């Protein structure tokens, strides 16, 4: 895997070819307001085999989030309105629709909607879906394997002290690519499971001979 410096050097070396292949890059470099519509969109039936997930995978994830709903509604009150589901609002954006119609020179039928993932509960970003789901799935596996939890239980029991004691044995590190550094999440005494503070540590990329201390910010 390339580090950020290597990636930047490779990109700069390939920039002339990229500009020739994708003229829109010139506008991006010039910081012009730009609209890009993917010309290679396809049907769900054609694209789904490349996703790497099956319908069973989707149903399994859906069932898991349903099991955690009672817990989430109590641990994170901001999810109570959606009964413990991590969901974002769909809103109409008529001004954007008018602008796109003007740019395209054609009417856009129906109502253009925006999915407000920027307002997702718990984390306020798209990470509230995949990232938190991964944590929940891992926690569920640990508790099931330890015989502390059954898939038929009311998962709000995860708020009980015995589960906090159990999860305090573990910490979680999340490596994030495509960024200058790695993001590590350390959940002190499993406070994430109780809806308390989260510590986010950023570790810059360094040579093995160098020592780096993470900077931790309380969230």
From TrEMBL:
<dbReference type="InterPro" id="IPR036052">
    <property type="entry name" value="TrpB-like_PALP_sf"/>
</dbReference>
<dbReference type="InterPro" id="IPR000634">
    <property type="entry name" value="Ser/Thr_deHydtase_PyrdxlP-BS"/>
</dbReference>
<protein>
    <submittedName>
        <fullName>D-serine dehydratase</fullName>
        <ecNumber>4.3.1.18</ecNumber>
    </submittedName>
</protein>
<keyword id="KW-0456">Lyase</keyword>
<keyword id="KW-0663">Pyridoxal phosphate</keyword>
<dbReference type="GO" id="GO:0008721">
    <property type="term" value="F:D-serine ammonia-lyase activity"/>
</dbReference>
<dbReference type="GO" id="GO:0006520">
    <property type="term" value="P:amino acid metabolic process"/>
</dbReference>
<dbReference type="GO" id="GO:0030170">
    <property type="term" value="F:pyridoxal phosphate binding"/>
</dbReference>
